[in-house]
Amino acid sequence: METPKYLQIKNLIHEEIQHMASNEVIESERVLTKRLNASRMTVRRALDELVEEGFLYREKNKGTFVSDKSLNKKNTLVSDTENNNSEFHIINFDVKYSVKEDIMKKLNVGFDKTSSIIRAIRVVSRNNKPEKIEEFYIVRSFIDEKNLNKFDKLLDLNLYLKNSTMTQKLMPTTVPAKYASILKVAIDEPIITIEGILRNNSGIPYIYYRSYNHPRNEIIEITF
Amino acid sequence: METPKYLQIKNLIHEEIQHMASNEVIESERVLTKRLNASRMTVRRALDELVEEGFLYREKNKGTFVSDKSLNKKNTLVSDTENNNSEFHIINFDVKYSVKEDIMKKLNVGFDKTSSIIRAIRVVSRNNKPEKIEEFYIVRSFIDEKNLNKFDKLLDLNLYLKNSTMTQKLMPTTVPAKYASILKVAIDEPIITIEGILRNNSGIPYIYYRSYNHPRNEIIEITF
DNA sequence: CAGTGGTCTAGACCACGTG
DNA sequence: ACGTGGTCTAGACCACTGC
A192 to chain B: nearest residue by CA? Predict the structure, then answer.
């Protein structure tokens, strides 16, 4: 049994409801139990996750219904390699033993050269229009060797979230001079800068990142 | 059995881990099962939620551990009446049959005076320092009559989230002239404006709100 | 080998909504 | 009266860790 049954069921139902109308009722849990040859608790776990992610909603004593498509939970504060056909362009990548002091502090590393830091800077665009510039500072010792040379894995913060917690701060700023031309933003135009820190479950910080977001409405949106 | 057993267990464990150190291991699920006289699935459900909320984390074959206190999930994009000793000051409250057209559109109501709209504007402060100004537009017919005159219930968006989905957009702007003096922000200083729409499970929008946030770092922070 | 979390089963009772 | 989701039980097997 490679993938757990509840995940198979979840994926199956996720497929099936794509072809259904909003607010249409789906089969009851007991019917699914029989059709999918699973126990009710297993079916419920699959449904629980789909509800949690916003694809379904339940009404007690009535049934389980397909959500309006626009209501799926999403968080676009973090770049998403999967869906939204973004284009990524790395403009800097190196490994250093010291970076700016404030960043060293946030990552809780010293200048003793015991731990190296990966720095990467990239431009995220859509339809050839630059949307944001992201700077990453990653403590190398926390990263799997095998991911070190795969940018897409290394810089996809979503992949770290299973075992980490991310705290983000949003700050109104103006664009840094060095990035103004790349983002095509006037130097005094207000933008939003996002600063994030990822910590592992023990609370140790290991990734610091910053993103400078083009002031286009649609970019920064979060649904929950 | 007023509150479900899994919630009682969840609350109990939530209490108990307050007095524990970060990364300390808690009792195993089977031990809890016996101590709390519950089945394993019930104990797991309680733990599942505490893990989901960031209070605990699990390591397979090892145990369940107390998270670093700073890692609890929180979302301060929405004002929180509970924790952070914010002070609220209502500066406007009325019920109207028409508001600005763009807001009518977002709430999907017409000018036919069939549905009235509650408008409320308030200042949120901490330590006597204004942090943000929030404007609410609420379609009255969606609100319980009994909450209509309780501002704290009416304007606590967290209370709606159980049965709703909220989509928020973050925009870099400057402060509106009429609010500059209240927020004590210079008229050309960059701030972040948050625009939110709450929809019920059927996808029908019923609350539109906007908040103008003082450019102080700590205000807008989100952990997940 | 004993203990852990991850998954799964096949039932059960409840409160509530609808015909 | 029947069907729904919400809760709960008392087991079970698995893969893995640490001693």
Answer: B172
| Interface contact A176, partner B, CB < 8 A | no
What is the pTM (predicted TM-score) of this model? 0.87
Pairing assessment for the beta strands A190-200 and A205-213 based on DSSP bridges: antiparallel
SS (H, E, C) A49-73: HHHHCCCEEEECCCEEEECCHHHCC
Are B18 and B54 in contact by the 8 Å Cβ rule? The answer is no
Cα-flanking dihedrals φ and ψ of residue B129, to 5°? Answer: -105, 125
CA atoms within 13 A on the CB side of A170: 28
Please answer yes or no on whether A57 and B201 come within 8 Å at the CB atom: yes
Closest to B168 measured CA to CA, from B100, B105, B222, B90: B222
How far is Cα A49 from Cα B177, in angstroms, rounded to an integer?
A: 45
Condensed to tens digits (0 to 9), the pLDDT of residues A119-170 reads 999 999 888 889 999 999 999 888 877 777 777 788 888 888 888 888 888 8
Question: What count of other Cβ atoms lies within 10 Å of the Cβ of residue A141?
Answer: 11
> For residues A19 and A55, what is the distance between their CA atoms, to the nearest angstrom?
13
A15-20: long-range contacts at Cβ-Cβ below 8 A with a sequence spacing of 24 or more? A17/A50, A17/A55, A17/A56, A17/A66, A20/A66
CB B63 within 8 A of CB B26: yes
B141 sits in which H/E element: none
Nearest alpha-carbon partner for A120 in A89, A142, A165? A89
Q: Tens digit of pLDDT for each residue in A61-85?
A: 999 999 987 777 777 777 776 666 7
Q: Which of B15, B201, B184 has the alpha carbon at shortest distance from A60?
A: B201
Three-state DSSP class for residue A172: strand
Q: Which amino acid is it at A212?
A: Y
Classified as helix, coil or strand, A5 is: helix
Burial class (CB in 10 A: 0-12, 13-18, 19+), B181: exposed
B158 touches chain A (CB under 8 A): no
B contacts of A70 (beta carbons < 8 Å): 167, 203
